[in-house]
Queue: 2 jobs
Job 1
Amino acid sequence: MQVKDSMRIQVTTVTPDTLVSTAYQLMTMRGHRIRHLPVVTGQNVLVGILTDRDVRQAGASDAPSMAEHELLYLLEKLRVRDIMTQDVVTVRGTTSLAEAGQLFLQRKFGCLPVVGDDNRLEGIITVTDLLRTYVEQSDTGRTV
Amino acid sequence: MQVAEIMSKDIEVVDRNDNLRSVEERMAAKQLRHLPVLEQGEVVGMVTQRDLFKAAMSSTMGYGAKAQQAYLQSVRVKEIMTYPVVTVSPDTSIAAAADMMITIGIGCLPVVDNQQLIGIITKTDLLRCLRAQDAV
């Protein structure tokens, strides 16, 4: 089986210009449990990924010389491009699930963006999606 | 296959009165996302990295690392822990455990025998096991 059989295609994304405070709200909104937000441009080209850890670190940045109101002002203006991770490991829809599973285990990732030609985002796949595929397959008595 | 065969037995736990800063340090040191809260061997709650993230961000966004640490130090596990906790028994099948995690939407299950915590199983443990069997 391949990544495209297991991936989610409805993905919450942000753009490089999205405010960090908005991204934070997207991650923690009721009903949302998001740890990774793919960062895409207008043409849906993947340019980075924003994790809860990135946001947390931005919120905790020490600036001892800055007055509190100055720091708050800066954070209000901070955009996703300023703190996102740019080197993103991706898979293709045609990557085998076995290979994706190895990547999760070896690199300790929880999520991999799925891209097509020109690095356009097609979906994401998580450890949970792999497990779900396994459960569904074993329910129907087929081997994965 | 049963969860007893693949669960981690070396379990890091916290007390309900521990402060969040010490919890965060232990999570970071061992690269853990979930810690069971134990009272006399029994699981009474669970604290996750997400709980810490929310606690830290909602109260100290923009106040600097020192303020965030001071705040976390002032909050105790019992104020933010999730309870009651969904657990499994050691003879639960791997497939049933995977099904539970997906259906309930949780990343880890404490393994409990006679109301005592004997292990913990995560999605990563399940994936590793399935990969080893070439099931996925």
Job 2
Amino acid sequence: MNWFQSISNSLGSNAWVSLIQSFLSGKKKNEPPPIVRAESIAGRALTMVIAIMCFLACLTAGAVYMVNQSASAWFNDIASEVTVQVNPTNTADLEKTVTLVSLFLAKQHGIAKVLPLGPEESAKLLEPWLGNTDVLDVIPIPRLIAVEINRSSPPDLAAITQALETNFANVTLDDHRRWRAELRTVTRSLALGGITVLLLVGAATVATIVSATRSAMASNREIVEVLHFVGAGQRFIAHEFEKHFLTLGVRAGLVGALAATLVFLLLPLVMRALGGGSLAATEIKRLIGTAGLDWQGYALFVLVVIVVASLCMLTSRLGVVRILKSND
Amino acid sequence: MESERRDTRDVIRFENVGLRYGLGVEVLRDISFHLIPGSFHFLTGPSGAGKTSLLRLLFMSLRPSRGLISLFGQNIAELPASERSEYRRRIGIVFQDFRLLDHLTTWENVALPLRVLGKSEAEYKSDVTELLKWVGLGERMYAYPAVLSGGEKQRAAIARAVIGKPELLLADEPTGNVDPQMAHRLLRLFVELNRLGTSVVIATHDYQLMDQTDAPRLVLHDGQMEVR
């Protein structure tokens, strides 16, 4: 007796165990034919419905997961940086002040990196609003110092702000608090919207699969009745149907999940092919990151297949019980 | 047969059984009889007299509107649904409409009752083959029901009902679609089965068939039963 047999014996008769056993042991040559008809019109229609709904559910789950990941990444990026601004108005030696402030900041506890931006880089930040004009050479542009925070040992930003105000004139620290609050609202809204869409698609998937499985079960009514009349118990009949519908659910679900996987694998390539340098592609990339999924995202697809196949199995069991009740 | 004493060894016992469908009139009224193990009976009567309904009551696919039915000494009203399959396994039934599964071959259909008992193919292979040869379906073992004639389907249905050597055999018009020669052959099968201890109830219109044995007749008429 191998390890799997001993586990399955302890679990008893279960369609999932039977399915895994048949995958591990392969189809036996002299195995009797399945009692439940392997191919039927209702079965083929059900396979197609499951594959399509599984594809849509995986796409939705993947997209929601990706947007949530991107939103968390934005939030982490923004939370790990503060900006110090040196106002050029009434500042005698701007370059010297920037250097002194940078040195001061670098000495503070919890500061990982200090990056003063040059006049050209600061001017470039205004280009999207003012364009590339000579105006940028004329107007006083504040100088920015990007400060990266050590997230494992963060600095006391209130004390640093106080110290900057005491030691330097026209220097302010922006810890992005307002921006972070807005971003938190946006990310939470995105997550909530995504989960709502996922729940709706999930509910539609459940309703469609339950309905299609019921139809398929109705076409198998005669088989249930004959088995019942030749003395098969409810457990035997339910197991035969569970095996059949679980296999069907897993196969169709895998087709849907694989199609969704292909979409997510090809999405970055498609985006690149559409023109990675274009503004649209850049904006999409900013919104949803690299447009690729990590392993946890793909693990969600496996979960979708398991849920969908289990749903088919459960609905078929309920169908058997309903038919048997009407015959008793 | 007419004994009023309740015998727990009775295969079948009906006491004042009545049956109506919905709010309609009673199709069976005050039916009382009992059959001892190893008995052989014909169930007859005009069309619509309630033969099939009575067989369905016996097979627990209908519940009586009133009265008591016992099978193998057990009041079926008190039998939990989970235990009914155990009792059904002790009964072989031949349906008027055969009820063969179209996606299984004749051989697989006949083997079905043994398969649901959890037996391996090796255990019943020779029995199924031998029985099919006996009922004249040796050449049609691997044919699907869709290509069988009415008589062949009927013989396959009979073979399926008797393959498990049931304690009680119920047959609804088992010779309705076969020629007299095959009808005689099938009757011999039922008699042989009866000789081995199986109680047999055959619902039929076929007087020629009934005349071939001196088995008692349960005659249904106008919803009531008399024994001849």
